[in-house]
Specification:
Radius of gyration: 19 Å
Number of helices: 8
Shape: globular
Oligomer: single chain
Largest sheet: 5 strands, parallel
Strand content: 5-15%
Strand order of the largest sheet: 2-3-6-1-7
Structural class: alpha/beta
Length: about 210
């Protein structure tokens, strides 16, 4: 999950690696990663985390669109026993689970507005309140967020909070699609041929370009 996981020699890849190296030295800086689906946004997030001083802490990836809306607050902030029907035990949320490490929020552009407001508060003061609890808990978490949507359009339409965007986008990393770095394709072909050959117990093929 480090820089060695990146394959390519294009200027676009060089720029991403420069950004990652810089961000590894600033472990408290929130980062917004943009790019189309499949471009490697989580790979960038993991490289930032595992090369930073937070590497010994947890890396918690969260797909924001995969969580049912009515469970989102509990999923992010936790809950105490008896907070709602079915809450038979206390449960830590993603922020507590990521304490001392990094929380990666993928597809954050689809997060409901109500949860955006609560997320903003945590980013502002570092305190979370589990559902049904009367006491807050302090958390130390770096947030890396990613989206494949045109977030500026959502901000203009009122579907995403601009103040939350500014809290998350302390630093921006744009991950380009492969069609914009075609010079990396031969290297990627060789890389994946080697992986697949090793999985099948074969010698790696030689590819001519």
């Amino acid at each position: 999950w480090g820089l060695a996981a990146f394959v390519g020699q294009s200027r676009a890849i060089e720029k991403i690696l420069e950004d990652i190296r810089r961000l590894q030295h600033f472990a408290g800086t929130n980062v917004f990663i943009t790019g189309e689906s499949g471009t490697g946004k989580e790979l960038v997030a993991r490289a930032i985390h595992f090369g930073s001083s937070r590497a010994q802490g947890p890396f918690i990836p969260v797909n924001c669109v995969a969580i049912p809306t009515d469970l989102m607050e509990s999923a992010f902030f936790g809950h105490v026993r008896g907070a709602f029907t079915g809450a038979t035990t206390d449960r830590k949320g993603y922020f507590e689970l990521a304490h001392g490490g990094t929380l990666f929020l993928d597809e954050i552009g689809d997060m409901p507005l109500t949860l955006q407001a609560k997320l903003l508060r945590v980013l502002e003061d570092g305190w979370v309140t589990p559902v049904g609890a009367s006491q807050e808990k302090k958390v130390d978490v770096r947030v890396l967020a990613a989206t494949n949507t045109e977030l500026q359009e959502k901000i203009a339409n009122g579907a995403f909070r601009q103040d939350l965007y500014f809290r998350l986008a302390r630093y921006l990393v744009a991950v380009p699609p492969l069609r914009e770095r075609r010079e990396d394709i031969p290297l990627l072909v060789t890389h994946f041929c080697g992986i697949f050959a090793a999985e099948m117990g074969l010698d790696a093929p030689t590819c001519s370009t």
